[in-house]
Amino acid sequence: MELWYTENQNDDLRFSCRVTRTLHVEKTPFQHLAVLETPCFGRVLVLDGIVQTTVWDEFMYHEMIAHVPLNTHPRPEKVLIIGGGDGGTAREVVRHPKVKSAVMVEIDERVIAVSRQYLPELSQGLDDPKLELRIEDGIEYVTKHPGEYDVILIDSPDPIGPAKGLFGRQFYEGVAAALKEDGLFVAQTESPLFNADLIAEIYRNLREIFPIVRLYLTYVPTYPGGMWSFTLASKKYDPLEVKPEDIPPLSYRYYNAEIHRAAFALPQFLQEILRRA
């Protein structure tokens, strides 16, 4: 008998893939956690019934959440990651040559432990000497560290459960306060196809807090609709002014100098969503 994983992406849409093995299942103090082995995507991390990342396509997400902001700031020496317990964002941050130190704040230590065990391709950066791991609430953490960070990355799950507060205006104001006077941050901001109202709300809130706000795109086949958004908010530096020669030649799989600029070229329907925000 075949085993299939099915994610209810909304009331009218489901995503399914065949599962060859269930590697891990548990209920943590915060969420339901599972790791599945699939023939299409390799190992898959699932939280509360929603795919968070897969070994097959994770680089499309993690390179874009990390390197676009790290290459926008000319001196991203001190970085804060909120969420990202699988380790993929941390892996990209610590290999950037200008990053001197990074702090990763994850509320659920079981996500880190399980990722270390089953997702070594992603979690390898968690042991880098540049990185400090902290198990606590990211919303509370930013309020205790004013003016401390050059770059902050919000690598959160969908806005449900413990992650819901990571999409609110009050949290973004705390992030702004935790940044240095020329700091910037990026948050993953969901699907332009299925979360247009949320994207518009985030964009509107950030425009009232930061002088520069830019939305950019990547493509993650295992996320609803495939098209995925990030929103960058900056106190000083504009990602559209980055020069190709300033981007370090790391061994990227998705990101490069051309993608950096092209990611900000938005389809017309999304431009209209932002204009109405």
From TrEMBL:
One Pfam family here: Spermine_synth
Catalytic activity: S-adenosyl 3-(methylsulfanyl)propylamine + putrescine = S-methyl-5'-thioadenosine + spermidine + H(+)
Keyword Glycoprotein: no
PABS domain ranges (all copies): 2-235
Any single GO CC term annotated in Swiss-Prot or TrEMBL for this entry: cytosol
Active site: D155
Function per UniProt: Catalyzes the irreversible transfer of a propylamine group from the amino donor S-adenosylmethioninamine (decarboxy-AdoMet) to putrescine (1,4-diaminobutane) to yield spermidine.
Protein name per its UniProtKB record: Polyamine aminopropyltransferase
Organism: Ammonifex degensii (strain DSM 10501 / KC4)
Lineage: Bacteria, Bacillati, Bacillota, Clostridia, Thermoanaerobacterales
Gene: speE
